[in-house]
Specification:
The complex is a heterodimer.
Chain A: H1 3-6, H2 9-16, E1 32-40, E2 45-53, E3 58-66, H3 69-82, H4 87-101, H5 111-114, H6 127-146
Antiparallel strand pairs in A: 1-2, 2-3
Helix pairs in contact in A: 2-3, 3-6, 4-6
Chain B: H1 21-25, E1 34-35, E2 38-39, E3 41-42, H2 53-65, H3 76-95, E4 104-107, H4 110-125, E5 141-145, H5 154-163, E6 166-170, H6 183-186, E7 191-197, H7 210-219, E8 222-226, H8 238-241, E9 245-249, E10 260-264, H9 266-271, E11 282-286, E12 289-292, H10 306-322, H11 324-343, E13 348-351, E14 362-367, H12 372-381, E15 384-385, E16 387-389, H13 394-399, E17 405-409, H14 416-433
Parallel strand pairs in B: 3-15, 5-6, 5-7, 7-8, 8-9
Antiparallel strand pairs in B: 1-2, 4-10, 9-10, 11-12, 13-14, 14-17, 16-17
Classes of the chains: A alpha+beta, B alpha/beta.
Chain lengths: 158, 434
């Protein structure tokens, strides 16, 4: 096994220097704010993702949690990719990430859509770790739905 | 390590029973395989043990030559299968020094065994004529500990919810020992059962049970010991331990999955109402109602895991052939070696007893701030198989303030070279994440 396929520099960098970490209140008091707390029952990893939106634009995607490098780096990338996006765009990114993670390493990621998320292509080859990568994304999906913006209907079996 | 001279006349170090580990390893086909280009280093035997050829052969031969259902056929195959199944029961009984083979109930695993006892309480609580020792209601208490596996927590939580009884527990000390300081206040006349782990699956702690047993007897409660992690690794004598029930599972002791054991004192099993209803557990059935077989059949509804039970019997033979005392000593030496070796790893924190006394060969630890998932992944890339996560003992993780732990666990086939490989792998993990 090539460990560096899994632990790409980008992932380790997001893990060691997470972007946008910490749960934040909305800047705009008119925003709808909702959050979701997800746990991985097999390992005890936890993440809370909070979405602040006016119903069209995701003004902030903030998060907090504890877990392995994959889950924490994934939350950092989630924040970076989706904050400030239209809900529709976020939907497409979310779908692309879920598709990548469900692809058992057979999906070639589009860097224009996924940005640093492409670094997780290697994770998809490790079924035991796919849930780690998806944990913040699934929490985001629930948080977005609670904030009234539906994102990616597909459920993932990892 | 320092060596200490043992005074003459005392048992000498050389008197300890030993066996040839290399020869034992040759019995386990899986130990020859490679993982990710490295020789397999299996340090997850507390999760499930490997199976020697002697057990695999018996399993295959049962299906190839003696396959039939048990306890219901007059034909030759049925007789052979029944004899093998009941023979396995007798072997298991002898292995734990049970006074009678009828005190051994075959179950699916330890979890089912604990649930049988919990549901017997539940069912008895619904029947005014049931044995009062099994009747629970508001004001009654069930006592467990903070170091239990989920399988010895959740069944009792559910039982207390159903009956209105209260669940209480022994805390765990900072050293990972059972905190018995509140024993007299915790185990009282209100206590109906104390159900506690003999050896912790996460901390490795082997609990000294005698003070608790004594208190349990004083207050007239029952005692169940979860021996899932102890029966595979040390001699067990249910008479000596003076327990009322013990449970353990086959797959952690060189046997197959799908077979476990509930041992109970015969008069207690006889006083327990049935749990699962069905074939084999009845005396007579009419459309108006049924009467039930004596134990152990009363608790073995349906076709049991026959081949698995027979193979568990073979596992018992295998372990007995090597000697449980010798296996215990081998693991004690490994544990001492591993505690020393892990102590050399910078930033490593061991959860549980730091000395190889009153503990078994299961060691959980944290490596700096590196998440156990990541530690386990790096180790796996080097062929080293450890368990990471909360080990189905989440309250223990909470107690020590971590979401998860990395755990290395040993068995009769584990070598010091494998512990060296673990330590080298941990250095590798530090390089990746520091």
């Amino acid at each position: 096994m090539q460990l560096d396929q899994l632990y790409q520099e980008i992932i380790l960098d997001h893990y060691k220097h997470p972007h946008g970490r910490g749960l934040r209140d909305a800047d705009d008091p008119a925003d709808r704010v909702a959050e979701a707390h997800h746990v991985n029952p097999t390992c005890g990893d936890e993440v809370t993702v909070r979405v602040a939106t006016d119903g069209e634009v995701l003004h902030d995607v903030s998060y907090d949690g504890m877990g392995c490098s994959i889950s924490q780096a994934s939350a950092s990338v989630l924040h970076e990719l989706l904050t400030g996006r239209d809900a529709d765009e976020a939907y497409r990114v979310h779908e692309a990430f879920v598709e990548l993670m469900s692809g058992r390493g057979q999906v070639t990621p589009d860097e224009d859509v996924l940005g640093d998320g492409v670094a997780f292509a290697g994770v998809a080859r490790y079924p035991a770790r796919v849930k780690c990568a998806l944990l913040p994304w699934m929490a985001f999906k629930d948080a977005a739905a609670r904030a009234g913006v539906g994102v990616s209907p597909s459920e993932v079996k990892a | 390590m320092t060596s200490i001279a043992i005074p003459p006349g005392m048992p000498q170090y050389g008197d300890v029973p030993r066996y040839d580990v290399a020869k034992v390893r040759a019995d386990f086909p899986i130990l020859d395989r490679e993982v990710n280009g490295h020789r397999l280093v299996y340090l997850d035997s507390a999760n499930t043990s490997h199976k020697p050829r002697q057990v695999l052969d018996v399993l295959a031969e049962h299906y190839a030559m003696h396959n039939a259902n048990v306890s219901r056929s007059v034909h030759t195959l049925g007789t052979e299968a029944t004899e093998a199944y009941e023979g396995a029961r007798a072997k298991v009984a002898a292995f734990i020094n049970a006074p009678s083979a009828d005190e051994v109930v075959f179950t699916k695993n330890s979890t089912e065994a604990i649930n049988i006892v919990a549901y017997a309480f539940s069912n008895a609580s619904l029947r005014p004529d049931a044995d009062p020792r099994f009747r629970l209601g508001p004001g009654d208490e069930v006592v467990i500990s903070e170091m239990e596996h989920h399988s010895n927590i959740v069944p009792w939580q559910l039982l207390c919810e159903r009956t209105g009884a209260t669940l209480r527990w022994f805390p765990v000390t900072d050293q990972g020992r059972l905190d018995e300081s509140g024993l007299a206040e915790l185990v009282t006349e209100r206590t109906k059962i104390v159900s506690m782990v003999h050896m912790s699956n996460i901390l490795g702690t082997v609990n000294a049970t005698s003070r608790i047993t004594q208190r349990v007897r004083e207050v007239g409660a029952l005692l169940l010991l979860d021996c899932s992690q102890s029966v595979p690794h040390m001699p067990m004598d249910v008479v000596d331990y003076d327990a009322d029930f013990i449970v353990f599972t086959g797959h952690k002791m060189c046997g197959p999955t799908g077979i476990g054991v509930l041992w109970g004192r015969s008069e207690l099993l006889a006083a327990m109402p049935p749990v699962l209803g069905g074939g084999s557990m009845i005396e007579t059935v009419t459309m108006a109602g049924s009467t039930f077989a004596a134990p152990p059949a009363r608790f073995e509804a349906g076709t049991p895991p026959i081949a698995e039970a027979v193979a568990l019997g073979a596992a018992v033979d295998y372990l007995t052939g090597i000697g449980m005392r010798a296996i215990q000593w081998h693991e004690k030496e490994l544990t001492a070696y591993a505690l020393d070796a892990l102590g050399t790893v910078p930033g490593l924190r061991i959860f549980g007893p730091a000395v190889p006394v009153g503990r078994g060969g299961t060691i959980s630890f944290a490596l700096g701030d590196i998440h156990p998932h990541d530690v386990g992944q790096v180790l796996d890339s080097l062929g080293v198989q450890v368990r990471v996560g909360h080990h189905c003992a989440r309250p223990v993780c909470t107690r020590f303030g971590v979401p998860a732990m990395t755990r290395a666990s040993f068995y009769l086939y584990t070598t010091t070279e494998e512990i060296d490989a673990l330590v080298a792998g941990l250095e590798q993990a530090r390089k990746v994440f520091d």
